Amino acid sequence: MTSLNPSQSASGTPTASTALFTDRYELTMLQAALHSGTAFRSSVFEVFARRLPEGRRYGVVGGTGRLLAGLADFRFGDAELGFLAEQQVVNQQTLDFLADFSFTGNIYGYAEGEAYFPNSPILVVEGSFAEACILETYVLSILNHDSAIASAASRMTSAAGDRPCIEMGSRRTHEESAVSAARAAIIAGFASTSNLEAGRRFGVPTVGTAAHSFTLLHDSERAAFQAQIAAQGPGTTLLVDTYDVPAAVQTAVELAGPELGAVRLDSGDLVVQARQVRAQLDALGNLNTRIVVTSDLDEFAIAALAAAPVDAYGVGTSVATGSGAPTAGMVYKLVSRSGDDGEFVSVAKASKNKASVGGRKYALRRRSAAGVAQAEVIGIGHRPEDDGDDRPLMQDFVVDGLLQPGWTGPEAVLRAARRHQESTAELPASWRQLQRGEPVIPTEYEAPKG
Amino acid sequence: MTSLNPSQSASGTPTASTALFTDRYELTMLQAALHSGTAFRSSVFEVFARRLPEGRRYGVVGGTGRLLAGLADFRFGDAELGFLAEQQVVNQQTLDFLADFSFTGNIYGYAEGEAYFPNSPILVVEGSFAEACILETYVLSILNHDSAIASAASRMTSAAGDRPCIEMGSRRTHEESAVSAARAAIIAGFASTSNLEAGRRFGVPTVGTAAHSFTLLHDSERAAFQAQIAAQGPGTTLLVDTYDVPAAVQTAVELAGPELGAVRLDSGDLVVQARQVRAQLDALGNLNTRIVVTSDLDEFAIAALAAAPVDAYGVGTSVATGSGAPTAGMVYKLVSRSGDDGEFVSVAKASKNKASVGGRKYALRRRSAAGVAQAEVIGIGHRPEDDGDDRPLMQDFVVDGLLQPGWTGPEAVLRAARRHQESTAELPASWRQLQRGEPVIPTEYEAPKG
User: Fold this and answer.
1) Residues of B in contact with A227 (CB under 8 A)
2) pLDDT range class, residue B60, cuts 50, 70, 90
């Protein structure tokens, strides 16, 4: 167990403090609550998504490890306090509270990599209103982004089957999102990423060889291939669509010989071209030279290539932007809090089309005797009963302000990737269907027990 | 002018080095080019978008200021070199080059905030292949993200007319994207943001008062409003849709009196509710109390509220995720490079559906005598002639490795916001149409001059 202390941060991010990744109203609410004497009421906040993106059948939790690591850096130092004072965001009483802030409560929820469904209580944050309220924006930013990527990436690796997917979307998204997107894609089954910072920060495998510009830099495609093979060896991947694909494949095999690692196709009709190139490679004796395709792929394009002789998929824009759903739509809602008497009261807003369900939540995945998931069961105020085949979903991440071991750092990425594999494997077979439909299992509430 | 030297960084970002926000292949290409002796061929790379997002009529350049500031931090220090060596990403010759790297070439292009169109040469990077190649991923990440946000935000402020838009999408996107999104939204005419880090880093105005959780924390809505007014004064904005809107408005006016600043509606049918609340406020004598609406707004919802008595729009998910187009789809292509004889040669790939146009580009906006934009004119290898009414578009950002003044920092945000206003004002009136259509002006090439 690690104290949430910045000197022991395992976030690996270069950010000194994460505390201002926050909406201003979190701090003005804190000030008003300090003023009214309600700031230290015990509170339970819950992160959930009211629905999955249109037609999706499941979601995948991403970002928990980054969030837990970054919490240690959620501290208000001189720079942060100076800004808040200078801009008169909050008063001195509030600044004093923030100067001493560190989270002392509990955080529990779904393990990273776990499948989730509408209203799954993905994360529960318990503490005083003051300490739990101000985490809202930061918690949601990370979970909404990383879960959107993991959820999209999971559909791609599912469609790809045993063929590896390579994440290469960095150039299509914010430079820091790119690093987190690579991490989330790996959790959802991608084999590697092009992003070097992700390799450094999270220990994930990185790959890459050359772009069209490298071919254009040289006086001929032949000269470019020669240069690349000389520098990277014949096992490299040569990009063969700059001018004429069959001519390039011919040149590539002539220069690299039977050890040519792979050729990459980045344009045109990939199904047709992959077949032609496979036939050409085989005719030239390059039976072991692989074919990598990379042109604006998404889960549907990957599925359409299932019968084509393709060995790996490079995915860019689509994975880095969540394949049509760039945010997971999770919210952070107060569901229970104590009153002046110290007793907890369930609370919920009644807003039209945004009503919430009050009460502290627990969840388990109901499974058949054969181990197939049947329902997401959410107990309000109690843990739903496990009939022996079921799987409780709530994990302890932070207990009394102490970060529990195993949830952060590079090893947590590996663990989350295994969790993703196991969690999807137990879903009904329809989880792999890409067409629009309902969630593969229903969400069921168990009312509070007498 | 500022040398691109990290000790003089104006980026304001907490990132020590930006150099690993890079695809691995940029560095393996560099290695192969160093090996083949082509690494120091003079090269011209161009950033452009082949098309605007489906149905959009113009785009808005965002991110240039962040990019130019971050370039100073694009350096390979011991930490970066150690990672590359340990992972055997590149060889010692390449590491030696990277250790000494700083960009010494030229960067010119469209000013931040400028409108752009298909194939507009948004940024041109001139230098050796080595130094220009390795910037690709970083340049595209920033421009693709920030331009996507600025382009979406511009449609929202256009639809909002004189009513202010407030950016509040931080929780729906990556925590660092959120900061950049706030900046891009301000450039495209947003009045303020909820994001505190954006306030600190870029000097943009921040706003915020309270969420539903604040109401739920208290024993009654009345107690919550009392607490908020006591802490923030009667000029605050009270959120009135937690339980029953008319009752909340009644309570709000009772407690805050005629000085009540605003009420916020976050759910339900906003057109109907805004009318009811306006009537109620007026009947209570609160003629100056404003109405802020914030429920999943996008440019279409804002337009639909034009006739409703709304005073400000809070926009979240839609602006932070680019309103259906989360990336601008810009690419970074080698368009010209020198040969062994030192002479420049235009280059372009012939890939199916991804062909590019070779040659160094210059651009101007052709305008009528009345000052209305008529065409985006791109000269290949020469500057198109200005007939007196036209406006040249290429600005010098970096000259011989020296950052030119005025393009970075908080003042650049203000300048870009003014540029956005001026640039859109000269477009044909159809630029404000939200329905799908063609770009409001055509892109025309002028061939190389004999």
Assistant:
1) 32-33, 35-36, 38
2) very high
Who among B21, B80, B196 is closest to A20 (CB)? Answer: B196
CA distance A386 to A371: 13
Are A399 and A369 in the same domain? yes
Question: Are A19 and A142 part of one and the same domain?
Answer: yes
B329 and B301, same domain (yes or no):
no
Tell me which chain A residues have a C-beta less than 8 angstroms from the C-beta of B209: 25, 28-29
Q: For residue A56, what pLDDT band results from cuts at 50, 70 and 90?
A: very high
Q: Is the pLDDT of residue A10 over 50?
A: no
B6 pLDDT higher than 90: no
Are A112 and A235 within one domain? no
Give the global pTM. Answer: 0.96
User: What is the ipTM metric for this complex?
Assistant: 0.95
Given this model, what pLDDT does residue B14 score?
Answer: 41
Q: Amino acid identity, residue B27?
A: L
Residue B3 confidence class, pLDDT cut points 50, 70, 90: low
| Residues A350, B243: C-beta atoms closer than 8 Å | yes
CB-CB: which of A178, A217, A349 is closest to B33?
Answer: A217
Query: What is the spatial distance between Cα B265 and Cα A418, in angstroms, rounded to a whole number?
Result: 43
At residue B356 the predicted structure's pLDDT band, cuts being 50, 70 and 90, is confident
The residue type at A196: L
Nearest by Cα to B151 from B342, B371, B321 = B321
Q: How far is B82 from chain A (nearest CA, A)?
A: 10
Which of A35, A173, A219 comes nearest B231 by C-beta? Answer: A35
A57 — contact with chain B (CB < 8 Å)? Answer: no
β partners of residue A399: A402
Closest by Cα among B380, B374, B348 to B362: B380
Give the tens place of pLDDT for each residue, B78-107.
Answer: 999 999 999 999 999 999 999 999 999 999
Contacts of A180 in chain B (CB under 8 A): 174
Average pLDDT over residues B68-82: 96
B7 pLDDT above the threshold of 80: no
Compute the distance between CA of residue B162 and CA of residue A409 in angstroms, rounded to an integer: 48
How many Cβ pairs closer than 8 A exist between chain A and B?
354
- The residues, any chain, with a CB within 8 Å of residue B57's CB and separated by 6 or more, are B430, B431, B433, B437, B438, B439, B440
Cβ-based contacts of B146 with chain A (< 8 Å):
174
A51 and B CB contact within 8 Å: no
Residue A1: which pLDDT band, with cuts at 50, 70 and 90?
low
How confident is the model over B408-420, as pLDDT tens digits? 999 999 999 999 9
Search chain B and give the residue with CA nearest A229: B32
d(CA B391, CA B376): 10
Query: How much is the average pLDDT of A389-393?
Result: 97
Task: Assign A364 to helix, strand or coil.
Answer: strand
* Same-domain pairing of A141 and A159: no
Return left, alpha or beta for A288; rule: phi > 0 is left, psi -120 to 50 is alpha, else beta: alpha
Give, as one character, the DSSP assignment of residue B437: -
B180 Cβ under 8 Å from any chain A Cβ? yes
Chain B positions in Cβ-Cβ contact with residue A357 (cut-off 8 Å): none
pLDDT(B10) > 90: no
Domain around B102:
2-149+325-446
> A177–B179: do the CB atoms touch at under 8 Å?
no
Same domain, A30 and A103: yes
Under an 8 A CB cutoff, do A28 and B348 touch? no
Q: Do B230 and A31 touch (CB under 8 A)?
A: no
Q: How far is CA B95 from CA A206, B98, B100, in A?
A: 17, 5, 9
Output phi, psi for B292, to 5 deg: -110, 135
Residues A125-141 have pLDDT tens digits of 999 999 999 999 999 99
Provide the chain A residues 112-141 that lie in CB contact (below 8 A) with chain B.
Answer: 129, 133, 136-138, 140-141
Co-location of B305 and B335 in the same domain: no
Domain count for chain A, please give it. Answer: 2
CATH number at residue B103: 3.20.140.10
Q: Is A353 on the interface with B (CB under 8 A)?
A: yes
